[in-house]
């Protein structure tokens, strides 16, 4: 679960640094090593990578509250759009929405 939340924090940091066009294209979440694949129109510079890492670490250090709720799919999509499916669409009429403060 921690790796899952961290993935969203890193993705949010990437959007803040690179722009709202950034989208998660894949992830490998392990206990020792994890990876996040994102869309962007060019290779990241070391400075951009450092800034993303710094922002994500600041988000972790802020100890923001993490809340989990279950919502009807159409209600969740109306509230949050298709960013809910950054890691891929999930089945079911009810979906779990994990929110980390305003870090989305």
List the helices and strands and how they pair.
Blueprint: H1 2-18, E1 24-29, E2 34-38, H2 46-61, E3 66-72, H3 73-80, E4 94-100
Antiparallel strand pairs: 1-2, 3-4
Helix pairs in contact: 1-2
Brief rundown of the structure:
With 104 residues, the protein is α+β, with helices and mostly antiparallel strands. The chain has helices at residues 2-18, 46-61, 73-80, and strands at residues 24-29, 34-38, 66-72, 94-100.
Structure description:
By secondary structure, the protein is α+β, with helices and mostly antiparallel strands. The chain has three helices and four strands, in the order αββαβαβ. It has helices at residues 2-18, 46-61, 73-80, and strands at 24-29, 34-38, 66-72, 94-100. The chain has a two-stranded antiparallel ribbon. Helix 1 packs across helix 2. The radius of gyration is 14 Å and the shape is globular. The two termini are 17 Å apart.
Overview features:
104 residues; single chain; alpha+beta; two-stranded antiparallel ribbon
| Series of H and E elements | HEEHEHE
Percent of residues in helical segments?
25-40%
Contiguous low-pLDDT stretches (5 residues minimum) are none
N-end to C-end Cα span: 17 Å
- The global form is globular
Q: Over the alpha carbons, how many angstroms does the gyration radius reach?
A: 14 Å
Strand elements, count: 4
Total helix count? Answer: 3
Going across the biggest sheet, name each strand in turn: 1-2
The main sheet comes to: 2 strands, antiparallel
Assign the structural class, choosing from mainly alpha, mainly beta, alpha/beta, alpha+beta, or little secondary structure: alpha+beta
Look at the structure and give the mean pLDDT.
85
């Amino acid at each position: 679960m921690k790796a899952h939340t961290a993935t969203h924090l890193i993705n949010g940091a990437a959007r803040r640094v690179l722009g709202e066009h950034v989208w998660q294209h894949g992830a490998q979440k392990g206990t020792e090593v994890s990876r996040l694949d994102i869309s962007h129109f060019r290779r990241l510079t070391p400075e951009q990578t450092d800034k993303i890492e710094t922002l994500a670490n600041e988000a972790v250090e802020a100890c923001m509250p993490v809340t989990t709720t279950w919502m009807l799919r159409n209600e969740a999509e109306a509230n949050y759009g298709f960013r809910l499916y950054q890691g891929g669409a999930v089945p079911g009429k009810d979906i779990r929405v994990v929110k980390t403060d305003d870090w989305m």
